[in-house]
Design a protein that fits this description.
With about 325 residues, the protein is of the alpha+beta class. The protein contains 7 helices and 16 strands.
């Protein structure tokens, strides 16, 4: 059964022709490359009303149609993992994810994830994301905390995914970074792609990649650190972490992009110990705003700093006294 048919017009800004499957991976981030290729091979993708092929090179102005079929329910095990629910109706769920909780099964881990917790709370999640990602429209890194929206119905999934695709969703984060920001606000823009030498890392120093834009402003300055509010105008993997690290202000505790950054020697011993013991990136998704995909109501949800980051900020304030 078809859930919905999505129409995509290839941007006039596209300078070079691109493979059909590669374009759809970029445009339909809620579907995996394997799922997209399967849809094409099953004859569920058309280009200018003609059958699509994975290797077909599309150009600016082309009209692509994708038929999204229903999926069988996930076979993952539901687990009674506590959830902090901020809002729920028959179509979607908004939760406050704690740091340390993996969003969905990956890397061989199939239990102890947010998806396992969601299936226990709501067995009939949207299946569009695939068997390992039921209900998942977007994700937060395992060590990032904060607000997430989850799709319970397929129509909600399609509607939310479209908002993420066109970057109409408001996403704001709080981050504690090394160094004192001289300006009060700014914008970081560039191309992000996977680091060719270290595949688990991303880099913003590439000549090719996806456009990534992060806005930031200073919430509070400390003697050797800053508390920032960051807004995502695009949503690339590790975007805030990459942008701030390459700007010379890595996140406190970032195990990937903060390596090699030394703790200032002038800190009090107890604060120095606190900084070194902070074992996750000090990043919290505190605000999420979107249009309800069914009712069209404008919605906004926020979350206070979690205890570990609140304690870190308080320690930095004490050091400044």
């Amino acid at each position: 059964m078809e859930i919905e048919r999505i129409k995509i017009k290839v941007s006039d800004d596209l300078k070079e022709r691109i493979r059909l499957d590669a374009l759809l991976v970029r445009e339909l981030g809620f579907l995996s490359r394997a799922r997209i290729q399967r849809l094409i091979k099953e004859g569920r993708v058309w280009v200018n009303s003609g059958s699509g092929r994975c290797s077909l090179k599309v150009r600016s102005g082309d009209l692509i149609e994708v038929s999204i079929p229903s999926l069988v329910p996930s076979k993952l095990e539901p687990e009674p993992i506590p959830l902090k629910i901020l809002y729920e109706d028959e179509d979607l769920l908004v939760i406050d994810k704690p740091a340390g909780l993996l969003t969905h099964p990956a890397g061989g881990q199939v239990s102890g994830t947010l998806v396992n917790a969601l299936l226990y709370h709501c067995p009939n999640l949207s299946g569009i994301g695939g068997e390992l990602k039921p209900g998942i429209v977007h994700r937060l890194d395992k060590l990032t905390s904060g607000v997430m929206v989850v799709a319970k119905s397929d129509k909600a999934h399609i509607g939310l995914a479209e908002q993420f695709r066109v970057h109409s969703i408001k996403r704001a984060y709080l981050a504690v970074v090394y160094g004192v920001m001289e300006r009060g606000s700014g914008r970081i823009e560039g191309l992000i792609q996977r680091n060719p030498r270290q595949r688990l890392k991303m880099t913003g120093r590439a000549k090719t990649g996806k456009v990534a834009i992060t806005g930031w402003r200073v919430r509070e300055r400390f003697r050797h650190f800053s508390l920032l509010e960051c807004e995502l105008w695009t949503g690339r993997t590790h975007q805030i972490r990459v942008h701030l690290s390459e700007a010379g202000h890595p996140l406190v505790g970032d195990p990937v992009y903060g390596r090699g950054w030394s703790v200032p020697e002038k800190l009090k011993p107890e604060l120095k110990t606190k900084i070194k013991a902070f074992k996750r990136q000090a990043l919290h998704a505190y605000l999420l705003g979107f249009e309800h995909p069914i009712s069209r109501e404008k919605m906004s949800f926020s979350s206070e700093l979690p205890e570990d980051m609140e304690d870190l900020v308080n320690r930095l304030r004490e050091f400044d006294r």
